[in-house]
Amino acid sequence: MEHVGSAYHRVHRASLEDPERFWLEAAAAVDWEQPPQRALDSSRAPLYEWFPGATLNTCHNAVDRHVQAGHGERTALIHDSAMTGTKSRLSYAELLERVSRFAGVLRDCGVTAGDRVVIYLPMIPEAVVAMLACARIGAVHSVVFGGFAAPELAARIDDCTAVALVTASGGLEPGRVVEYLPIVAEALALSAGSVRSVVVKAREHVPGRAADHDATPAAGVRWLDWDEQCAQARPAATVPVAAGDPLYVLYTSGTTASPKGIVRDNGGHAVALAWSMAAVYDIGPGDVMWAASDVGWVVGHSYIVYAPLLVGATTVLYEGKPVGTPDAGAFWRVAAEHRVNVLFTAPTALRAIRRADPGLDLLARHDLSSLRTLFLAGERLDPETFAWAERGLHCPVVDHWWQTETGWPVAAVPRGLDSLPVRAGSAGLPVPGYRVEVVDGQGNPRAAGEEGNIVLRLPLPPGSLRGLWAGQERYRAAYLTAFPGCYATGDSGHFDEDGYLYVMGRTDDVINVAGHRLSTGQLEEVLATHPAVAEAAVIGVRDELKGQRASGFVTLKAGVDLDEADLRRELVALVRRQVGPVAAFRDVLVVQRLPKTRSGKILRKTMRQIVDGDEVAVPPTIEEPAVVDDLLVAVDRYRASGAAGG
Ligand code: COA
Ligand code: AMP
């Protein structure tokens, strides 16, 4: 193995041979109120707790301690909005002032340690402030991405029984203003009524104010203006919490219609993220990190908000797109202007840039000499895009793999430990702390080069999920039972002879659209609510730009006579209303029958092969083989109509 004997290898081995020592040493990078005496409590395995008995405050570690150490003037946050053409900076001292005041606002709303606060905000500094303010008083935030519709927001409010909601008048998407307050009002009306206060940041150019809603309060909900409340509030001090107490709940798609609330603790999270900044990203105090994601996703939580601030670096919060705001040079402009050292984005963003500017002519206009590494995650970095980026950027391009659940990278080529080479198509080597295995359906190891289920042997390192908000039984059932002693990632792939991991796809019905994780089961449930639909199947099909896109197949109830184009429009609108624009749902095919096994299971894999134009392997268990031919004809007809992939 090429990397045996390397620094990476030594560190990886040390982390697995003596995790207790390894993580206690790493814990020294964090300020504790009550320092940990031991790292891991395994007494309730397979449920584990990191740093039992220790207490700390995550906001203190991300903000206060840097000011106390004399670095108050250092830039903590750069906000760059390509949507409004504005840029602003907050020093650590200014961030402390803003966060403590907003923490005071939350406290005045009656939010106390352990209470849940839903944050539904666009990419503005208030999003970072609100998250840190929750952490400051020991409250648990749950950030909901702005591209989700009211029913999704309501589902999250109800699942975590949020007592407060922090929002803004709206977000800005190219060519349209997304007004948040009608969505929030609808979500509150749909929800069970746990929310008592809504705090609204009024944005310039986006209509909607707290006062408009406070005049007609629904069921005792107070609507408060962010600026007015902050002007009056007394700053709140940090509240120490147990290392194992939840810092946040972040919902992600699973195989069922209801999203899973991933619970992150305070102590393990702070230790793991601080460690990853040095070891994986090679970022330290004063460096500039830009994760071009959204605070609504785990990448935003970990590498826009917490990790850069935990280590005293500068983080960039970008409101805009990789293309069209105003052009495909937007990323290079931001990276050059703010002297970004590490850029982190999703392959789909690179593909969008490549499509618009294949020769990278716009890059040549900017000085990217500060850029040390480009990290990619969210979906597999296809070798072609990798080669294009590496050629054009003159800096290492590193694919790395992780999930909302793990909170930080599981596989990467850790830039801070070594200068091991990257390999096209591979997500890199197992990151220290993780014991990654590829196994068959029965849990037997697969040899190098053989495809299988990617599992992580327990215990997971600090920073990975504590469990699910819905309870540990659901956590066990979803992740810990399929392969005893292991966490099932839901991804499949293989190792090569040198231990590089190749993550090739999901083993379940989760799909990945433009780096956004969606549940096909959820989309099917929504389609099935249409009165004309008898049965629905949704599959993820290949998409040149977004990696995958959701394609819906429906059969109609007997006697229904509807124009197909009208039905398609109605179903697309239904998904947008129920799930949100983030689903980017456009394809609907009406078919006579769905291919099924004799036991009634829909053959999604066969359907995917038909749509992707791959060789179709029809399983012998199929109920009616002729359905496959019907489907081939329907797909061809649909393509010819010009409706596909719209
Ligand atoms: N609030 C409201 N709506 C949003 C939104 C938000 N925060 N983010 C996206 N949407 C909307 C878009 O406006 C679009 O709406 P439309 O149907 O009216 O056009 C829809 O959701 C789909 O958005 P998206 O998938 O982003 O497609 P796009 O065509 O607007 O942009 C890319 C394509 C590739 C440029 C874009 O997907 C991108 O930048 N992807 C990177 C993803 C990423 O960073 N993922 C995080 C993982 S690290
Ligand atoms: P999310 O929880 O939204 O971050 O999505 C996690 C899922 O995205 C993983 O389980 C993978 O299926 C996919 N994914 C993320 N990063 C990569 C990568 N580098 N290579 C392949 N798949 C990835």
TrEMBL record:
Q: Where is the AMP-binding enzyme C-terminal domain?
A: 523-601
Return the SUPFAM superfamilies for the record: Acetyl-CoA synthetase-like (SSF56801)
Q: Do you know which Pfam families this protein is assigned to?
A: ACAS_N, AMP-binding, AMP-binding_C
Q: Which residues form the Acetyl-coenzyme A synthetase N-terminal domain?
A: 8-62
Q: Which GO molecular function entries does the Swiss-Prot or TrEMBL record give? A: propionate-CoA ligase activity
Similarity field: Belongs to the ATP-dependent AMP-binding enzyme family.
What is the protein name stated in its UniProt record? Answer: Propionyl-CoA synthetase
